[in-house]
Design brief:
Radius of gyration of chain A: 30 Å
Strand content of chain A: 25-35%
Oligomer: homodimer
CATH class of the largest domain in chain A: Alpha Beta
Strand order of the largest sheet of chain A: 1-2-3-4-5-6-7-10
Largest sheet of chain A: 8 strands, parallel, barrel
Number of domains of chain A: 3
Structural class of chain A: alpha/beta
Helix content of chain A: 25-40%
CATH topology of the largest domain in chain A: TIM Barrel
CATH superfamily of the largest domain in chain A: Divalent-metal-dependent TIM barrel enzymes
Distance between the termini of chain A: 56 Å
Largest interface: A-B, 38 and 37 residues
Low-confidence stretches of chain A: 54-68
C-alpha cells in the first residue's frame, strides 16, 4: 500500500518497506507485512542470523564451500515473481571481509557469494550488504566487484550510517569515520558500477547540511528508519519524529529515496500473528512517515511532465546546423513567462525609442532575428499595442518550413501591412533599411552556446548606431556538482564522445557544491566591430567547511540575460526567473571525477574558442589536481558557424 | 661529431647540441657549429628575439594575425632534410601565455602557433617551448594541446629548470616552485600526449637526489648546460665542471638524455668567423662533456643486446596454455648463472640426502618438472658428479617437441641408463616411484605468476614425505614506479586489455619511488595438502621526504627464490643475483596514475585469486586515493589452469 495514491505519482519514494527478522516461513512474513499489513516490500535476511561460523570451535562444523548453509527456507509457496517484487535480500551483517584474520575473511567471502547466488537464483532484485567495518574496505570491495562484474544483474545496496548515534556523538569532535568517504572509496574501487548503490541508516544525530547534501548526488535507493528514532509524546502517548528527521525524510522523498522502517525491535516484542485481527504493530510508525509524504507540496503539472526527463542527458540543439522541427517549436512556445518578459522589454524599448508626442508619426523598425513560427513577432505586436507605438517588423528566419507557419500567423492576424517575412540566414540578409531594435531568442542553456554572439554580430550590420538589442547582454554561470549518475551516463552514452560533450539536462539527483560564478559575458550591440567572441575565464570555487570531502563529477551551466534594462531572463538557481520553462541547465562532465576536501579551493578554467568554421568550449581543472583539457579543438562537441 | 663513436653505441645520448642565438643566415650557423664545428645539432630561435609586440606602443606596428612576422630567414640554401636532422626550433622565450593581460596572452597564442606552423613547414622535428611563467600554465597547456592534437607530428619540448640558480638558493627554503609539479600539471592537462616532452635547464644548485630521480621516469629528451656552469681552474686556466654536475651528466647519459651546451654568452663574445681557421670557441666545453661520456663504463654485451628491449612491454608467457618455441629455449639456456646456481643447490641437496658412506649404494630419485630441452637434467647430472652421488632422473616435459631435443641430449651424453623421459603433463603423470628431489624452474618474473605453485602441488603427490623441492620457496616483491612511458604504452597497446595487463619489461626510464616490499610467499613441499594458493597482501609504501610530489604509474614486480638452503635466485634489485639474465621485471600498470606527496603513505592491495580454470591477480590503491580494482575476475590477464 503506497504512502499515497495520487494521480501521476510514479516516484519510487511513495513505496514504504519494512526491515524484518529472519524467518524460515517467508510466506507468513509476506502475508503479515504486505498482503495484510501496511508495507510495500520487506527487507529480510537470507540466512539464520545466529549462525557465525568463525565463533564455532568445532572444526567439523565449520563452514566449508561444499556444505549446505542455513538459508531462509526457499519456500515453494513464494514464487520468484513475489520474491522479485516484494523482497530485498539482507546479507548477514556480521560478515567481515576485511578482517585481519584470514579464516574469518575467507569464510566471509564464501558466505557472501553463496548468499548472493541464492538471491540471484530466486530472482531477488536487490540485496542489502552490510556496512564496511572500519576504514579499509578493499577486500570487501574486491569481492563485491567480482560479483558485480559477473553474469547476474542484481542491485547491490551497501548500507552506510547517515549521521551518528547518541553514543558516538560528542560536540566538536571530527574524528568519526565519514561514511560518505568510505562509500566513495568503495565505489571507486568498484569503478562506478551501475548496480552498486547505497542504503542509508538514519541515525539520531544528523550530519551538517552541506555534508548531508552530498548524498543527493549519489545512487541512494532507500533510507532505513529505525523504530527507535521515533519519540513518544507524554500526553496521548502518540508517536512523533523530531523536526530535523521529518525535514530529512521529506528531502529524501524529494530525491526519490524510499523509506524502510526497521521494525526488528517492535516486531520482536509484538505478538506475532497471522490472523490480521489486530492492527500491524508498525502501523503508527508507517502513518508518521505517510503523513510527511502527504504534507509535501505535490509536484506541479510541469514537474510531473518533467519526471521522465530527470537526470537524462541530451545533446544540445545546433540551430545553425540543423533545421528545428515543429515539435520543438511547439514545446518552446508554451513558455508563457519567457514571451511575457519579451513583451515587457520590447514595450519599454519602444517607449524609450519614440516619445509619446511622436508616437503616431514614427514607425519603429524592429527586426526579429530567428523568428521561427512567430512568437516574438506576436510579442512585438502586442508590445507595440501596449506601448501605443507604430511598428514595422522584419521577421528573419532561415528555416523555410517555419516561414510557412509564420506566414499563416501573419495573414490570420492581418499583420501583413507591417510585418515582412525574410526567409534567409540573418548573416546573409541585405536589409533594405537599418533597424531601431533587434529582437532575438538565440540563447542556449549556457547563454552563448547556440551562437547568439555570432548571429547578432551578423545582424549588427543593419542596426542603427544607437539601436537596441533585446537581449542587451547575457552572462553564463558555472557551478561544481556531485552527480554520479550524470557522470556514469556521460561515460556510457556512445554519442557523448570521449565522455566530454556538454549536455542539456534536467538536474535532479545532484549536489551543488558551491555557489555558481560568472563565466562569459556578451553585450549587444558591440562597442566596436571585430570585438572577439573568444573568451577565457579562470574560476575559483571554495568548498564549504562543513561539506566534508566530495567528488566533483562536472559542472552545471546556467545563464542570466538582460532583455532590456530591468527585464531579465535568468536560469541561475539563486536568481532564477520563476516558472521559466525553456531551458534546462547544461552539464559539462569531467572525464575523471576529482576529489575535493572541505574548505579547499577548486580551480577551473573555461575557454570559448572560435575557429574558422566552428565555436567550442574547452575546460579543465588545475586545483586540487590537474585534469586533462576537455574537448580539445572541439573534437567532441562544437557549434558550426 | 658524436661524443664518442664506439661500436654498437646507438644511444641518443652520444649526440651533443648547441644553443645559439638568432641569425638570418642559418646556413652559416650550421656550417660554423656542425659542418666545421664540434656539434651534432643546433637549438636555434625561429624569430628575431628582440621583437616583443606588446612592448611596442605604436598600434600600427602591433602584431596582427595576417602580417608577416620577423622569422629567421627561410633560407633556400638549407634543405628541409638538414632542418629536420640538424636543428631544434626554439620558440620565443618571452611568450607569456598565462599573462593576466588579455592582449599579451592572445598575441602570445598567435605568435606561438605561427612559429610552430613555420617549423612544421620546414619539417623541423622538435621545437623547444619556453618555461611556463609562474605556477599556472592552463592557458599555455591549452594552446600546446591544440597544437599536439592537430595534424602535425612535431615533438614539443617544454623547458623546465632543473635545480635553481645561486640567486634563488637559500638553504632550508622550500617555497620555490617545484618545476616537476608544473611539468606534471602541464602534461596532465595535455593528457600524456606522446609528442609532449621535456628539456631540462641544468642550474647551479641541483635538487636533492630523490627529487632528481623523478625525472628519469619522464620523457626527458635533452638537458641544456649553460657555459656559465663551467668553472675555471686558477692554474692552467682550464675549464671544469663541479663534481655533482659531472655525476649528473653521467646519470643523464645513462638515461639516454643528450646534452645541449648553451653557448649564447660565449658565442656573443667570440669573434664570429666562418673561415674555420680558429678552433670553435665552445670546443673546450664540449670536450668536458665528451670526457664524462668517455669515462663512463661502456655497456656490456648483454646490455647492448637489451638496448632494443628497453621499456618495451611484453605480455608474459603462459607455459600451461601454449607450447614453448625452440627460440625461447635458446634464449633461456644462455643464462649460465641460473644453471650454475641450480647445480650448486642440487649438489648440496644430494649430499644432504645420502651420506658419504652410502654414496655408492643409494641412487637418489630426482624428478625434473618441466625439463624442456634438458638444461636442468644437465645441471642435475653435473651436480651428481660433483657430489659423488648416484642418480636416477625422471625428466617430465609436456611439450612433445622439446622431448625430441631432450632425447638427443640424453643419447649424445650416454645418460640413457639413468635418465628417463616422461612426455606428459606433470599433473597427469602416474609416477612409478616416489621422488627424493623435485627440481623445477617454473618461476615467472613475479615468482608464482607462471603457476609454479599449482604445478608443484601436482608434483607433490609423488614426492617422498621428507623429500626436497628445488626451489624450496619463493617470494614476490613490489615497488611503486614513476614510469610515464610504460603507462602510456599500457594505455595504447591494444593487446593490453583495459590498460591493466601485467607485462614483462626491461625497465629503464623509470623512477623507483620507495624500496620494494614482499608480497606473496610459497614454500614447497607444502605442509598440508589442500593449502590454498590464494593470497591477499596489503602493502604500505612511504614516499621519502626529499622526493617532492610524484606520480605512481604502476608497480614493478620481482621475486627472490631460495633454491636450497643458502643458494638463491633473486631479481629484487637491492639483493639481485648478479648477471642473472632470464627474468625482466613485471610491470603492473595503474589505469589512472595516482599523485603522491613526499612523506606520504601509498597503500596498495594485491590479490592472487584462484578460480576453477584460471589464476589471476587483482590490485588496487586505497591511499592517498582509491583506484578501481584492476583486472576484476581476471578479465584482462590470467593464467589458465
Amino acid at each position: 500500500m503506497p504512502l499515497e495514491s495520487r494521480e501521476g505519482d510514479t516516484s519510487k519514494a511513495r513505496l514504504c518497506g519494512v526491515e524484518i527478522g529472519f524467518s524460515y516461513t517467508i510466506t507468513d512474513s509476506i502475508r503479515f507485512n504486505i498482503d495484510q499489513g501496511p508495507f510495500d516490500f520487506i527487507l529480510v535476511p537470507l540466512m539464520y542470523p545466529g549462525f557465525v561460523p568463525t565463533e564455532d570451535n568445532d572444526p567439523n562444523s565449520r563452514i566449508l564451500d561444499h556444505r549446505l548453509l542455513p538459508y531462509a527456507g526457499s519456500d515453494f509457496n513464494v514464487s520468484c515473481n513475489r520474491w522479485n517484487k516484494l523482497a530485498y535480500g539482507k546479507i548477514s551483517p556480521w560478515l567481515d571481509l576485511d578482517s585481519e584474520d584470514e579464516t574469518t575473511r575467507m569464510d566471509a567471502e564464501i558466505i557472501l557469494k553463496k548468499q548472493i547466488e541464492w538471491a540471484s537464483y530466486l530472482s531477488i532484485k536487490a540485496c542489502v550488504l552490510p556496512t564496511p567495518k572500519g576504514n579499509c574496505c578493499a577486500n570487501y570491495a574486491r569481492c563485491v566487484n567480482q560479483i558485480l562484474q559477473g553474469p547476474n544483474n542484481m542491485k547491490l545496496l551497501v548500507r552506510f550510517p547517515f549521521g551518528m548515534s547518541d553514543d558516538d556523538y560528542s560536540p566538536g569532535s571530527n574524528d568519526l569515520v565519514d561514511s560518505w568517504k568510505t562509500w566513495n572509496s568503495f565505489r571507486l574501487l568498484c569503478d562506478y558500477h551501475n548496480q552498486l548503490m547505497v542504503v542509508l541508516d538514519i541515525m539520531r544525530v544528523l550530519p551538517p547540511e552541506n555534508s548531508q547534501k552530498r548524498w543527493y548526488g549519489e545512487p541512494v535507493t532507500a533510507a532505513i528508519l529505525d523504530s527507535d528514532m521515533f519519540l513518544t509524546k507524554t500526553r496521548g502517548n502518540t508517536l512523533y519524529l523530531p523536526k530535523r528527521h521529518q525535514k530529512l525524510i521529506a528531502d529524501f522523498f524529494d530525491h526519490d529515496i524510499r523509506i524502510i522502517i526497521s521494525g526488528l525491535k517492535v516486531l520482536n516484542e509484538a505478538q506475532f500473528t497471522t490472523e490480521g485481527s489486530k492492527p500491524h504493530p508498525l502501523l503508527p510508525y508507517r502513518d508518521q512517515v505517510s503523513n510527511i509524504y502527504k504534507q509535501m507540496v505535490p509536484p506541479s503539472e510541469q514537474e510531473r511532465l518533467e519526471f521522465g526527463m530527470r537526470d537524462f542527458l541530451q545533446l544540445p540543439l545546433r540551430p545553425l546546423r540543423n533545421y528545428t522541427q515543429a515539435k520543438s517549436y511547439d514545446t518552446w512556445e508554451k513558455d508563457k513567462v519567457k514571451y511575457i518578459n519579451y513583451e515587457i522589454a520590447i514595450c519599454k524599448a519602444l517607449r524609450d525609442r519614440v516619445s509619446n508626442e511622436k508616437a503616431s508619426e514614427i514607425a519603429t523598425v524592429l527586426v526579429v532575428v530567428g523568428a521561427g513560427r512567430g512568437p516574438l513577432v506576436r510579442s512585438s505586436v502586442q508590445a507595440a499595442k501596449r506601448a501605443g507605438r507604430k511598428l514595422k517588423v522584419y521577421a528573419v528566419e532561415k528555416n523555410p518550413q517555419a516561414a510557412i507557419a509564420l506566414d499563416e500567423l501573419i495573414r490570420t492576424n492581418n499583420w501583413s501591412s507591417f510585418v515582412y517575412i525574410v526567409s534567409s540566414d540573418v548573416r546573409d540578409w541585405k536589409a533594405p533599411e537599418r533597424a531601431d531594435i533587434l529582437v532575438s531568442d538565440l540563447l542556449g542553456s549556457f547563454g552563448d552556446n547556440e551562437l547568439s554572439p555570432e548571429s547578432l554580430d551578423g545582424a549588427q550590420r543593419f542596426l542603427k548606431k544607437d539601436g537596441i538589442s533585446i537581449p542587451s547582454s547575457y552572462t553564463s554561470f558555472l557551478q561544481p556538482l556531485t552527480a554520479s549518475k550524470l557522470y556514469k551516463d556521460a561515460k556510457e552514452i556512445k554519442e557523448i564522445l570521449h565522455s566530454e560533450s556538454a549536455c542539456v539536462v534536467n538536474m535532479y539527483n545532484v549536489d551543488r557544491l558551491a555557489p555558481s560564478q560568472e563565466v562569459f559575458t556578451f553585450t549587444h550591440p558591440k562597442s566596436f566591430v571585430g570585438e572577439s567572441n573568444q573568451r577565457y575565464q579562470k574560476l575559483c570555487f571554495m568548498i564549504p567547511n562543513d561539506t566534508g570531502s566530495a567528488m566533483v563529477h562536472g559542472f552545471a551551466g546556467y545563464f542570466n540575460a538582460t532583455l532590456y534594462k530591468d527585464v531579465f531572463l535568468r536560469t541561475e538557481p539563486s536568481t532564477a526567473t520563476p516558472k521559466l520553462k525553456t531551458w534546462f541547465p547544461m552539464f559539462f562532465p569531467l572525464r575523471t571525477p576529482i576529489c575535493v576536501e572541505s574548505g579547499s579551493r577548486l580551480e577551473v578554467h573555461f575557454w570559448r574558442c572560435v575557429g574558422y568554421r566552428k565555436v567550442w568550449y574547452e575546460w579543465c581543472v588545475t586545483s586540487p589536481s590537474s585534469s586533462p583539457i576537455h574537448n580539445c579543438n572541439g573534437r567532441s562537441c562544437w557549434m558550426d558557424l
